[in-house]
Amino acid sequence: MFSVVSTAAICGMRAVMVRVEVDVSQGLPGFLMVGYLGSEVKEAGERVRVALKNVGISLPPMRITVNLSPADIRKSGTGYDLPVAVGILQALGHVEESLAADVMVAGELSLDGKVKEVKGVLPMVKTAREQGIRRCIVPWENENEGALIPDVEVIGVSSLEEVIGLLGGKECGEGKCAKTDGGKENGKENGKTDGKSRENVLDFSEVNGQQTAKRAAEIAAAGFHNLLLIGPPGAGKTMIAKRMIGILPKLTEEECLEVSSVYSISGLLNRGNAFLTERPFLSPHHAITVQALAGGGAYPKPGIVSLAHKGILFMDEMPEFGAHVLDVLRQPLEEKKIQIARTGGNYEYPAEFMLVGAMNPCPCGYYPDLARCRCTQPAIRRYQSRLSGPVLDRIDICAEVPALAMEDLTGGNGKGRKRRKKEETSAAIRERVLRAREIQEKRGTGRFNAALTPEETGQFCRLDAEGKRLMEKAFRKMKFSARTYYRILRVARTVADLEGAPEIGKVHLAEAISCRMAGNVYWDR
Amino acid sequence: MTENWKHQQPYAYWLECVRGLGRRTRWELTERAGSPKAVYDTPEEEWREILPEKKRKALGQARAGMDPEEIYLQFCRHPVHYLPNTHPGYPARLRKIPDPPFGIFLWGELPPPGQPAVAVIGARECSEYGRYMAERTATELAAEGVCVVSGMARGIDGISQRAALQAGGKSFAVLGSGADVCYPPENKSLYEALKTKGGILSEYLPGTQPNAGLFPQRNRIISGLADIILIVEARERSGTLITADMALEQGKEVWVIPGRLTDPLSAGCNRLMKQGAGILTSVGEMLEETGLRQCHADGSGTFGTEPEEKEKAACREGETLPHKARNGKSAGIFRYLDDYPKSVERLQRESGMEYRQAVCELMELCMENRAEQVSAGQYVRKR
Asked: Are the Cβ atoms of B341 and A369 closer than 8 angstroms?
């Protein structure tokens, strides 16, 4: 009596098909599981035995051997309970072999036979589909995740009895199944329409004044440039950063799948929130550890940088993050992914995020207002140099968020004549951003302006005559390095794209130069 | 004593090396004994009346542990020179101040006795205005053949000394550390230049590390070496004002550069002005009034109005300034720039200009060196 059931193991971002082989034969009664198992998988045997007993199937006094193949991949997680149970049922003839053959099964069992949610269902179903499997049995909680993959039947189950029923075994507890089915239908609807709708996202019209910073946010969003906001406490740095999600274009279907995969592996999806439609916004506290940011653990999980994939990683009070924590960002910022090496193997997670940093200009926060700031130059330099050069090099745009004047808050000029100017809404800004992105896509590099190579920069970032003159002057006056030069050109390209200008003009370039990391105090590199 | 000052050198140096003796004690001992050598030769028991036990012990230990001739020979290999008060080269100006230094360690040369010297001092964290005024004043002083004495500190001190050297003048720094210790480190290049084009003075032994307690002390030497003290920028309560007090005690004239009432960095200057300090409107005038220069009646170098006059003159001659040639409005936003950093928002609000245009014009002004971007979104006027 031998049987095989398909399931999947998560390896980094991918899922790998795993065969659960069960053999029931004569011999000293016992239950043996092999195949490079983590301790939670070793425990699966006990859970399966008790769960089977509690749904009315007792195991015969025979020798049961379970092998998870390929045996050289480390198995971890609780998703093997259900496939092991199905394998045993099949070996014992409780379910029909033909029905169980082309099915991918995953799920955790509780002792009473309930099926509980597992992590990583989305990539599992995706791999199964690629391997030609058309039917997946997954926990009810994870059904909607799996349903994102087209062309494959994903069945959510909430108990072992249901599974037996599905696979042609004797139906037991039919009434219960019918009930949960009803629940499923509703759930499916919910899952599809979920995701915060645009209306709930914070809007830029709530930010008074701060035109420079808002404009910088717009340019950053349009070209996917990294942004650093500098300003005194309470000026609105965090406010602006939080609203940047609202001006980024929506996730495309493909991106949505990619981002949802990361969340699926991290176990952050559930039935009501089965996939992400909105770009993620991650704002880790500065006490975060290297592992939490990069991802890690003995069997790695995606870290914050991966959870921010395709979205915004906002680092408030950036100098407060430890130097070694900030240095973790170097690889992801460069390669848009992060590699983690552990004893269990090398893992790679996507990490293409927009870094938005916020910081005070000096320890007291008020520089360059000399009437309030009494920080010494060395103190300011020390404070600012907590951001390491390599990280700063990847930040294209630096914007100041100055303390607001009374007029900005009340709208009047003090005499009460002028009404407050209506601030622009996120929707209006987003429209410009979308147009700029369309132009970038048409270039066919597959990259946004921020990621253009020097070659592509030379090709696409052409200056017109006036622009060239200004660039020459600026280059001489400000002693740009080659890196700064390209950085400015890329930002200028985005500024021009926002206007739909084919060539970079003087105004565009001037604005790009003005939002470089500027001045004698900030890093003139 | 005039002839035997050379014999006194090792003993004076030895006296400097005695740990636990202050400057005043050194003075007192030499005055009583007659010379440093006499101090060395007197058994410490004889100082019972004037020295506490601890100091007598220190003296005894130093006598037993150090051979003056030997340590002085060792010291002579060092590029730093030692001028004790017995030395004929000891600056005459310092002999006149209360509480003069016992000796001066010197790297480079001393301020020439015949040449007028002005101490240009001010805040470490200075404003753009202070920077500009320090540069300009020091340059003009150098052109007049006046030495600039200062403390080589961050901000005004360093700026003025650098400007003086650049203009081909002489400058002298008095340090609060040993003469061979460069503090602050960012003024290293200035420090090196001062060694050849001026001098570095200190009353502390070479190798002495900078210490907050030593700085107010060295200020009296700065003012002592100068004929007049010019304060460029100072806050209401600041070290610069301490120097001003010391200068008044020494009978030196204090001059200040006027600033605005709203400006915290000019508050100290304004207060001194109220107390009767000289008000600098032109370097020439100041030198004449203080008798440091013979009358030149050309009246040049009056501050403040010059740029505008240049502009007017240019217009009269039918020339246009470069920024106007390209864009007539450039002067528009320039008008709203100040010596204090202003944000783009504020400049926009005041000038009523559109954001992009404002940024574009500001960038252009920056290229022309008429403005500077001090931080991401803040600009100051340059002159």
From this structure: yes
